Structure formats: C-alpha cells, structure tokens
Amino acid sequence: MNFWKSFFAAFLALVLFTIVSFILLIGIIGGITAEEEVVVAENSVLHLKLDAQITELQAENPLAGLPFGSEAPKIGLLQLKEVIQHAKEDSSIKGIYLEVSYPMAGFSTIEEIRQSLIDFRKGGKWVVAYSTVMSEGAYYLASAADKIYLNPEGEIEFNGLTIEISFFKRLFDKLEIKPEVFRVGEFKSAVEPFILEKMSPENRLQLTELANSVYGFTLKRISEARNIPVEKLKEISDKMLIRNAADAKSYGLVDELYYQDQFIDNLKGRLSLGEKDDIEFIRYGKYRKSVPAHKSSKNEIAVIVADGTIMPGKANDGEQVIGAETFVEEIRKARTDDDIKAIVLRVNSPGGEFRASDMMWREIQLATKAKSVIASMGDYAASGGYYLAMGCDTIVAQPHTITGSIGIFGMMFDMSGFLGNKLGITFDEVRTGEFGEMFTVSRPLTEAEKNYWQKSLNDHYETFTGKAAEGRGVAIEEIKKVASGRVWSGAQAQERKLVDILGGFDDAVKIAAEKAGVASDYKIRFYPKHKPFLEQLITQLEDNAKTDAIKSELGESYIWYQQLKKINTYQGAQARMPFEIQLH
Q1: Which residue in 62, 41, 108, 61 sits closest to 81, CA to CA?
Q2: pTM to 2 decimal places
Q3: Tens of pLDDT, residues 385-417
Q4: What structural domains does the chain harbor?
C-alpha cells in the first residue's frame, strides 16, 4: 500500500509539474508573440547597430527572449532594406545613427545596405556613423553616411583585401587519408586544400585578379563618398598609413574625433534639442515592427531566396542550405499562381551538389516560359549558384559579386590506411561484377572506378557549359573560354557576358516589374515562408539539445567534427565555388 501511495503521489506530482510547465511556457510564448503596437515618437533617430550576421532573410529565433534561449545576432538584408525605405518616408524619423564595428557580411551585402542609406539621404534626411573601432567592412559601410565620427582613441582597419586558404594535405598525410579527386577545368580549385600545401599558379592568378577587381571597385565607391582620389586611397591602404584615430582624420577618412558624449551633443544639435533633452532613439528590431507587412496591390513580385549551399532534399528555417525539393516547390507555386506577375530569384550561394542544381535549373526554365524570372546575385552566385542564375531571363549582379566558377569536381576519401594502421580496422568484400561500392572510404578506388567517375564528371561539365551557352545566348566555345571553374567578380563577369546588368536587388525588382507591365502597381513578397512559431520552437529545442550533447561529448574536438561534416558533403559530383571570402 505504501508503494502504491508513493507511486501515485509521484505520478500526480509529475502530471501537475507538466501542466504547470506547459501553462508557463504558453504564457511566455504568448508574451513574446503578442503583437506589440509600436509608436514612433516625433523627432526620432533610427539606431542601426549592424554588428551582426547579415543573411538574406531574417529567420526569427523562437528561443530569443526565453529564459533558456539564446539570441544569436542576425539581421535579414532584405528586411533591413525595407526598413530603411520605410524610414525614408516616415516623417517621425529625422535621421539614422549607424553604429558598426564588425559586420559579418560580404562585399555585395554591404553594398546593398550602402545604396539603401544613400537613397535614404536623397529624401533630405541625414545618416551619421559613429564607432570606436571599424573593420574594413565597417568603414566601407560607414562611407555611405553624411558624416563619420570616430572615438579619439579608436582605430580603423584600412589595409586592403586578403584572401587566405587553409590547406589540409599534411594533416591527411599524417592520418594516412588519401583524397581521390576528379575535376574538370584547371581553375576548379575547390579540391586544392586537400591535395596541395599551397595555391596552384592558376588559383593564385585568379584570386589575385579577383581581389584587385573587387577592392578596386570598393576604393572607387569610397572615393566618390569621401572625395579622396582613388590613387591616394590606394596609397593609404597599400602602405597602411592609418595607424590611429588622428591619422584617420588627417587623411580625411573620418570627419571628427568625438567621445560618446560629444557625439550625442552633435546629434542634439541636428535635432534642435536642448542640453537636458533626451534623444528619441528607436532601434532596428523595434522599428521593424512598425513597417507594414505588405503593400496593398493585386500584382505580386515573388522574391524567392536561394541562400546557402545547394543540397538535395528539403531546407529548414534558419539553415543556410538551399534544399532542392523546397526550392522547386516554391518556383512551381510561383509559376502557377496568377497573382504573381514576375519572379526575382535572389541567389547567394557558392554552389553545391550538381544534380540538385540541375533539378532547380529545370524548374526555373519552366517558370521563364510562363513569366519573367530575374536573377539578383548577392555576395556569391558561383558554380551551382551560377547554374541557377543562368536559367533566368536577366542576370543582375553587384560589381563585388563572386560569380562564374563554371566547372565540376568530385571527391572521395580513401581512409583504409587511417582505419587499418591507426585504428586497427580492416575490410574485405566480395562483388558480382567489375565495380564495387562506388562511395566507399574503406579502400582505394580501382582504375575502372576512377575512369567511371572522371567520365561522369566530363559529361556533367558538358551539360553545365552547354546550358550556360544556351542561357546566355552565346556559342559554347565562348563559354568554355571563361569556364574551367574560374571565378570572376561581377564587373569581370559582365565584360565576359556572364552577367547582363551591374546593380542591386532593387534594380532586379524594377526590371521584373517593368517586364511584367506592373511597374506602377506591385507588391513584393518573400519566399519560402517561415514555418509556424510553435513548429520553429520545437525544431530549435531539438536542434539545441542535439548540438549541446555533441559539444559536451567532443569538447574542443567539436570544431573538427564540424569540418568533417562539411567535407562529407563534398562526396560525389559538385558544382561548388573553390573558396569563401569574408570582409573583416
């Protein structure tokens, strides 16, 4: 009897605890998800603090604000542009205070924000930037402001662009792991980190020309904004003449050196406030809630965002992965929806799995037969990313966009030495024919299997270049001259007929609206849509629990686990860019 009393008491306590916890959770969620009415005070200043990871679309973090949640700073580029445009037309917003030190974004993303800030200023309003430290990317963004202010003991990084690649050959040699590589094109250098100890001459050539093209355009934009000759800026950068805040002012990169209180006094003067008056700052996160969700119009321009690595299957909210099934479904729905008059394909991808890229290309081709499809390139639209863009009617790229990389590679890893000699694990097999398991790490591939893989990649390369030639309306011989896996800046790509127009996302939308005949009356809607809040919450709780368990088990080795997962995605035919660039 005592046992059953204790059992039922414990069971009842568990039930009550579960019910109370559920009620509390619902209350917390309700408090977070409740619509907050945002009132923007007169004479307000929009405070944009952009030290965050800037992705194409902002996926809301369902755990943000919860006691057990973590709020990773992320800002969606396309939503940020909408907010700045709304602020331009909002009479309550007098100006923008731009605070930025280390934005996690590429050149083209920063250029998109710069253009939005410059457009904001055209409405008669001001933008001022203030910070203690500015990375090269932060300064490039700040150069769009009317005035740039720096802390007297602050610093600016202004010393050019560096592209650094990590090489793993020695590590693999020590571990007795042998990469088995197949590629088409002398510039398809994605595999170099696994087979070389330094860049090949071909890769060094393309990266040098790419860096000079991208940085040259950056200096041109800064020259226009700061009224400093490009040659002078290049000298300052090459010789790293900016060593402290005083140098930054002396060479004209900033306007004044202010402490925080002096900067606030300057803002009060702009707003005609008294010394004791407070400035009405409104932060981006709060102000975004005051922006109407959608413009009222029957004509819709669908913006389908392809952000991340291309992989088969479906994609989840918040992941920088382009799931082929998800993407195809979104394109198909946009193609068959009569309310959608045109499609803008926003591509920010270094590429990925070849067949997934081809499957999405096919759906884009079908869509172009029904309505206009315009490609807008972000930081990257390379290899598989370019595969998507080349199926569109018109391709719009920023001069900084990294694109091209028309080539194919495949890679597997022979881990028999590592498994046998390091771990003492050996394998044997029987087979019914000449070919065995084609995706294997337990043995080296046979010559017949290697020949099969290389022939397969050669065929894929012919497919890639043939469809590129068809999409761009040029002879395949002309495409092959600029293919071979070589990457280009957007400016270089336009010269080689890989890109039609140099411009940003707004330009692509305007072109789409004009081609659809709705230039004077349309609304924009972003796809894919986010999942319901509760589904996001459950998914993120599961993912967090899984990640925490792996981190706890692996400790400092977790970073190598992440690298191994990334390498595993390289198995099979890949249309992937050979490197990644970050602006620091």
Answers
A1: 108
A2: 0.84
A3: 999 999 999 999 999 999 999 988 888 889 999
A4: 44-158+242-290 (3.90.226.10), 300-576 (3.90.226.10)
